Queue: 2 jobs
Job 1
Amino acid sequence: MPRNDDVRFTSCSIKLPPLGHNSSITFFSKLQFTSQFLINSLMKPQKPLNFNFNLKKKSITNFFTNFPKPPNLLSSFRFHPPLKSSLLCSASLALSDGGNAESDLSGSTNQTVLKSPSQTQITSRDEERVLISEVWVRNKDGDELERKDLESEAKNALKASRPNSALTVRDVQEDVHRIIASGYFASCMPVAVDTRDGIRLVFQVEPNQEFQGLVCEGANVLPSKFIEDAFRDGYGKVVNIRRLDDVINSINGWYMERGLFGMVSGIEILSGGIIRLQVSEAEVNNMTIRFLDRTGEPTVGKTRPETILRQLTTKKGQVYSMLQGKRDVDTLLTMGIMEDVSIIPQPAGDSNKIDLTLNIVERKSGGGISAGGGISSGITSGPLAGLIGSCAIYHKNLFGKNQKLNVSLERGQIDSIFRINYTDPWIEGDDTRTSRSIMIQNSRTPGTLVHGNQPDSNSFTIGRVTAGIEYSRPFRPKWNGTLGLIFQRAGAHDDKGNPVIRDFYSSPLTASGNTHDDMLLAKLETVYTGSGDPGSSMFAFNMDQGIPVWPEWLVFNRVNARARKGLVLGPACLRLSLSGGHVVGNFPPHEAFAIGGTNSVRGYEEGAVGSGRSCAIGCGEVSFPLTGPVEGVIFADYGTDLGSGSIVPGDPAGARLKPGSGYGYGLGIRVDSPLGPLRLEYAFNDQRTGRFHFGVGLRN
């Protein structure tokens, strides 16, 4: 939250001193409150932060108000007129032995004062009724009010006090409270004058001043415009306490909505109609880390404190925000090395600041061995079609810096991938959260995506040896960019492992004519990721550029993009997606865009629609809840190579009579799982052929 440097910070609150019987009472008195008392009153030590956002307003309010208050402190600034108190007004009934109806009210001398019920025990005398002939509203000197609208406000507030009515002391006191409760008056004194026509009841009132200016202190993050707009309607008007209460609530609400530790701590009306508003904001002083074991006992941590602290967006000197704190907790948990994280705010000594303690419970081990299995959509035939087994040795917190090393092997009926990957999620000394990834990989994938099954029942695979380095960083909220340099050597091999340069139709399998193609690719990628809600959006753009370091190395440019948008339609959700790409230059045929399959055009086998230099694929689907985590889905897909299949080297699509375009439609079910949505779908293509598809995650 940016600071508002136009306003300086002080801290105080409303405090009303004890009053004597003859005190002249005003609604606002001198503010006497120190910032240390505010912090001590606002905070409960050792209470972990609650990030339940449905209760965030209640959490902040409790955090500020759950402590015993000093005598007479108005910790809540809502005006509540007491029914049995002389705190805000004098509720005694003065009898003046005057007889002259026009006598000066302030000059009456022989007065008999009846104490209000709040000052003595109620007796039968207090309940005696006095017949009132007239009811006047005057200023504190007994003269008529200059503003008749204020006189009307006071008279309209009266309920029991009417001409020719019999009143008790309690009736008068309650009407005094009603006048004060109207919000326009700082004090009210009821005086009874004995005249020739009977007893006249005079309410001597002191109106509030007219609002002429505002001084706001302590609002470091509260926008000046918000304060000005809140008070703008009151300029030149008599200050109304109820209106002030609404303004204070709106300011406190601004802090609550943003989860900020701030509130109005005091307000005072100065001479000349100037309102001084005191705002108290709890700034972060120090942040410390405490490592705990699973039983809550202190222990020695494996992660370096600076590695944890630099992940936090909460910084020293900022006004602490619960929302920002929750995001910081989520960020620490996504590092993958923490089991539990909590933030505890505490008063920072004698200052108006807070110290934050991060309680960290690390995972038992930063490394280990894992094994699993999966399905490859590229395998469409065979008794164990598509099944893949995998194992990995990994470490998630190298050197206590959250650096990750992963060595993995995946093996299927035809597919195999051996990969060594090292990732530094945040390069030390970098302020832009740049990550670095170094990868070495040896993979083998089926060549059927582009070249299909061979008529002679012989099959071949595409082998790739890849090594590269990539740098990635966020450059805007929800946007991430990646730059990389990748070397790749790729070639085709038969089922015995021998190099192959042509397929059954004599189409070339390499661009150079050699047993393998070498290329050095410069990679540029940008990704926009929405909130992940059903109605969110996603966009990704990728470009690879071949760099001719050696004359025989391939030079080509490949771009592709994909976008997805969700629309919530009552209980259902409509998802629209579009993807496409194009290649220019001398590229291997097996790098052509393969169209058709589980993540392309359903109803077709993988790559059965076409393979071209260009492609465009669209999809629309409607999902709807069935029961629990199970959803139903209806979908339709369309894909085309835009007539570019024939200009792929060797025209593998034309040799296999691929149509070049096609559509599919069908229905399926999805089940939420820790791996993502599990999809089982059945689709028909435009050839009236049906096919089952199984996948994990949303369709690309």
Job 2
Amino acid sequence: MAERTQTGYNICREILDEGTVDEMAERTNSKTEKVKKSLRCSGSQLKSCLLGSVPVLSWLPRYPIRENGLGDLVSGISVGIMQLPQGMAYALLASVPPVYGLFSSFYPVLIYFIFGTSKHISIGTFAVMSVMIGGVTERLAPESNFMIWNNVSNSSIVDTISRDAERVRVAAALTFLSGLFQILLGLIQFGFVVTYLSEPLVRGYTTAAAIHVIVSQLKYAFGVRPHRHSGPFSLIFTLLEVFYLIPQTNIGTLVVSIITITALSLAKELNAYLHKKLPVPIPVELIAIIIATVVSWQVNLKQSYGVDIVGEIPSGLQPPVFPVTSLFVQVIGDAFALSVVGYGITISLGRIFAMKYGYKVDSNQELFALGLSNSIGGIFQCFAVSCSMSRSMVQESTGGKTQVAGALSAVVILFITLWIGPFFEDLPKAVLSSIVYVNLHGMMKQFMDIPALWKSNRVDMVVWLGTFILTVLFNPDMGLAASIGFSMLTVIIRTQLPRYSLLGQVPNTDIYRPLEDYSQVKQVPEILIFRSSATLYFANAEMYQNALGKKSGIDITKILSAKKKLEAKRKKHEKKNAKKAAKQNAVNMREEQNNVAIIEVDLKPNPSFPRAIVLDLSPVNFLDTVGVKTLCNIRRDYGEVGIEVVLAGCQTGVVDNLQTGGFLNNKVTKSCLFSTVHDAVLHCQGVYKTKQKHKCTYYFM
């Protein structure tokens, strides 16, 4: 390897503290300027705001038909064909009739086409969202509330028509309210909330939700009817009951499930093997439901073998109906969880495609677009939507380049809903549950994250596992809140366990590094440079003070306590002498004073102590009141024993915190704050050696 060429340069300037830097750079009140700028309104700003709120107005007039038209057309048809079986299958997860899955694949997709900013994601039904909705609909509209007496069989049966109608109302209210939450969060620029959903958390959560999906579909795969369980550990109770009911398995339903899962799995592998040779993937799910419907119709699976089928599918679209407002109070918590999960999945996938193709996804606009999709969809009796990884990958791989592909997929669904839907009334529900199982294959691969995270970042692995376990045990809604809390706890613990270091100077440079990490780094004589790897706030303020004392070897509390005792003893002797002097005459008083031992307090600094301490605050991005008070105490306490304390590397926000928190005042000015550690070191050396203003000169070769 060729030897690296080193360039020499030098800098000669005065030592700069924060006050001098503010004067030289002419610091302005940025907050005031931002407020003034936000209150201004011009024609160009109004136009920009309008185009930002309705993105389709900015890109559709310039849509290049020759370049993108064919790819979007093929992609839209391919995704629309996928939407049909997935929409019907995920409707079962949401515990509503399958046709409502088709509605949810139409209205929200058109709304997102107008307001969304991602060009490649496929909005529509999604397994995780559907299973969360299904938990709410079954909780608020259980089958036990719709039992009627059948005079023919002399037994109680479920009034499925009333049950399904009520569950649709619950799902619509839940969807509408979750959309309102997303709109409100978007309007107040709350898109940053997704930053609290780290990638390990999202992947662990979706994997756990996939386990809930699998368990919820076992009743369709085996043809059994377990009781509805809700609350913590409901998944375990449901699983145990399904195992208990296995002897009652409907053999016809089980055979249909096994054949469908096997055929779809093989066909998916064939698709993956031939994906480079095929212009578009083989629509195996559509072929599966067509074949299954024909076989069910010809063999009469329902009557002959008792296989549960989809049943009546009304043709046409439903008229808009405003959701039942009385349900809002009962679903408000679930709606907020649904809004956060849906947005988190959408923005995560949207950013992946945006980085790949070099465009920007507006996180706040995505919240607004998804909120409108869900709130308007709720009025048309849809259930909440998000983006699907499998459909998005198909949309991208088949040539989709813009949101037009999504709009064309909605047209395909509209055609199916208006004219083809009733042909699938004989479709076995076991086929739809099998489609769900096969589509969860990708989520099951996320278990491979565990060994990868073990090698790269074990804290992230703990977050992944914690999220997975909490979500499995406490259901997707409560599991999300518990997982976010657990993730925040890991952050808090890491800020409470920072690394404290003493810094030394790399010879002949202005670079300072931890003494314990480098053999050639030397401590600056008579100056102690202390740094913490975390920000300074109430949770670790006391630890910061203790670490400074431990690293410096100065027990400041003990020293100040001893000093106070000596001071108190000296004052006591002075008071005692004064009383004796009042009783004696002036001559006797002088003689007495000559015989009295005087206790003196040594005000000279201990020669073993450093002359100055430099606190490197470059890792600190904010200071709360406790943090500011801690720095005040450090400067006061060490100052009492003759050690000057200065701060270095303060960010602008930290300087503002020091100003408002009372650290800076008439006695303490910005002259004790320095832009760099080297400026602070040179200042301290100048104060204690020459008492002159130094030039800061660096030479590098």
